[in-house]
Structure formats: structure tokens, C-alpha cells
Amino acid sequence: MTTNAAWVLVVEDDTFVNKAYQTKFAFEEIPAQFALDGESALAMLREAGSKLPAVVLLDLMMPGMNGFEVLEQMKGSPKWKNIPVIILSNLGQEEDKERGMKLGAVEYLVKADTKIADIVAKVNTYRNA
């Protein structure tokens, strides 16, 4: 990150969805970094040092480490536990939502039911907090 502005970490394995977020965040002038899987996301957090993201958008269904595992690791880390995590998944079952919230997510959004403009609004709520 070359900027001091509050940035967003997007953890999403779907390249099409990532491209949509990249385009929208660039348009809205929201600095963002993108990880295609859980392992990459945790590596980015480690590399971020003291310039941690203001918020993390986290998909659940990913190859390798899934989003629940990433969330558990984040909330188990003294350095990362206070970063707000918004789950953005197509898993819409009540059990999945409950599990995500119990693990420490601040919001659980179902991709199919959520417009990208609403995602940007949520991101900005946490970036500007």
C-alpha cells in the first residue's frame, strides 16, 4: 500500500467478482488489496505490519483454507482481532450466518442478495469509523 488511507482487504476466489470489486472500489477511490484464497489473505495481513486494513470482505467458499478458518485465525490473533470482517458469501443458510457471526464477523451478506453499491456503503461505514 502506498497510501495512508484506510484500505480494504478483499478475500474472494472468483476472479470475475474480484474484477467487479476492483472496478467499483477504484471508481469510489477506496484503496483495496485482493487475495484469491485464505492463505494469501493471512500472508497479506502479516506483511501489512502496522498498516492493517480498516475492514476485510471475506468469502467463505474458497480452495484450501475456507473463510471460516481465516476468520478464526484473525479473531484468534491479538494483532488482527479488532479488524471488522464482513462475510460476503453465497452460503445463505441460517447455520452459516450464525457460525460466521459467532466467530466474530460484524456483518454477513449474501452475495446474490446484495448490490455492490450496498457493499461499498458498508465498507465505507467501517473505513470511516
TrEMBL record:
PROSITE patterns: RESPONSE_REGULATORY. The keyword Nucleotidyltransferase does not apply. It comes from the Bacteria. Keywords: Phosphoprotein. GO terms for biological process: phosphorelay signal transduction system. SMART domains: REC (SM00448). The keyword Phosphoprotein applies. It holds the Pfam family Response_reg. The modification 4-aspartylphosphate is found at D59. Residues 7-126 form the Response regulatory domain. PANTHER family: RESPONSE REGULATORY DOMAIN-CONTAINING PROTEIN, STRESS RESPONSE REGULATOR PROTEIN 1. This is Response regulatory domain-containing protein. The lineage of its organism: Bacteria, Candidatus Kaiseribacteriota.
